[in-house]
Amino acid sequence: MNDHSDLISKTLPITYPFVLLFGIYIVVNGHVTPGGGFQGGAVIASILILKYLIDPSVETSLKKIRTIEKLALLLIFLFPLGFLLTFIHLQFPMFNCSYLILMNLLISIKVACGMSIIFIRFVFYETR
Amino acid sequence: MLKLALIVLIILAIFTIQTQKMRHAVVYLGAFSLTISFVYLLYNAPDVAIAEAIIGSTLSTILYLVALQKYKIFTVYYCLSEEEFKDQSHLTTEHLQFNKLLDKYCAKQELEPQIIYTVDNVDTIKAHHQYALIVLNESSHITIWGHPENYKLDSIIAFFDSEIHFKIPIEFIKVEEVIE
């Protein structure tokens, strides 16, 4: 972790797309198989840890992630209100599945951003 | 299978408490988390198992390891004479360059440098204080004493050797362990 290892920095970037794909799989299939927004978001957030293990000196900016997180929270509040209060789920029952997937995606974005913020703050900013 | 996993859980928990080194305890805790996520899976709760495996054994383990890394304090004593301490004449460009290099090294190794300026003698610091490095800054010559338990000393020597544009010769002295 403290010494920059060639083996880690060359082999770990290969696993980036697989981790991302696994996280998206968990999120999108969350309503039929085990998993869901929270678990998938946590998997996606672990990409940031991979990045830290590969090169600890690169700092990531917090502001963008914070904005995305707030936006996701706002959408999480707005979508159920718009969906349930207008009674779309009774008139068009075929939209229910896509609604679940959308909510899972939003929650996963929120969780991934939140865990990234925890990790970045802890690793790069906190000193004792 | 379930009973075996539960027994392994108890053994790992005892290991976690009983180890002397913090780092080993963190690793045992990660193994504990992984085993308990397997137990959740056997209890037909795959959702909880995924969350436990990711958060318990990956995120928290790495956070603990980083915290341990940050906790290590690297104490550096600068020995000055009394006149230097009063009129700040030690702040030459070479000294500032040396400080910058030391900061760079500490950032690279993720150490927390704690720099103390004293007017004490080198021998008194060696005898009475906890230190990692003692720096004696004379004109055109720097002497560094390293603590016997300071396992970073070799990498510091290698680091300063690799910095070619730093002109001042540095003498490294490894303090022998005092047998009492």
Give the arrangement of secondary structure elements.
The complex is a heterodimer of chains A (128) and B (180).
Chain A: H1 6-11, H2 16-28, H3 37-54, H4 62-85, H5 88-91, H6 95-125
Chain B: H1 2-18, H2 22-42, H3 46-71, E1 73-79, H4 82-87, H5 93-109, E2 112-118, H6 122-128, E3 133-138, E4 141-146, H7 153-162, E5 170-174
Parallel strand pairs in B: 1-2, 1-3, 4-5
Antiparallel strand pairs in B: 3-4
Helix pairs in contact in B: 1-2, 2-3
Task: Work out the helix count of chain B.
Answer: 7
- Secondary-structure element order of chain B, as H and E? HHHEHHEHEEHE
How many angstroms separate the termini of chain A? 18 Å
pLDDT average of chain A, as an integer?
A: 82
N-C termini distance of chain B: 54 Å
* Molecular shape of chain B: elongated
Q: Kindly estimate the percentage of residues of chain B that lie in beta strands according to DSSP.
A: 15-25%
- Biggest sheet statistics of chain B: 5 strands, mixed
Strand content of chain A is: under 5%
Number of strands of chain B: 5
Radius of gyration of chain A: 18 Å
Characterize the structure shown.
- Chain B: Residues 7-71 form the MrpA C-terminal/MbhD domain.
- The complex is a heterodimer of chains A (128) and B (180).
- With 128 residues, chain A is mainly α.
- Chain A has one domain (6-125).
- Chain A has helices at 6-11, 16-28, 37-54, 62-85, 88-91, 95-125.
- In chain A, helix 2 (16-28) runs antiparallel to helix 3 (37-54), helix 3 runs parallel beside helix 6 (95-125) and helix 4 (62-85) runs antiparallel to helix 6 (95-125).
- Chain A starts with 5 loop residues before the first helix and ends with a helix.
- Chain B is an alpha/beta fold and 180 residues long.
- Chain B has two domains: 2-70; 72-174, no CATH class.
- Helices cover 58% and strands 17% of the residues of chain B.
- A five-stranded mixed sheet of chain B has the order 2-1-3-4-5, sandwiched between helices.
- In chain B, helix 7 links the parallel strand 4 (141-146) and strand 5 (170-174).
- Chain B is elongated, with a radius of gyration of 24 Å.
- The relative contact order of chain B is 0.10.
- Chain A binds chain B through residues 1-2, 26, 34-36, 38-39, 42-43, 45-46, 49, 52, 56-57, 115, 119, 122-123, 126-128, and chain B through 46-47, 49-51, 54-55, 58-59, 62-63, 65-67, 69-71, 107-110, 112.
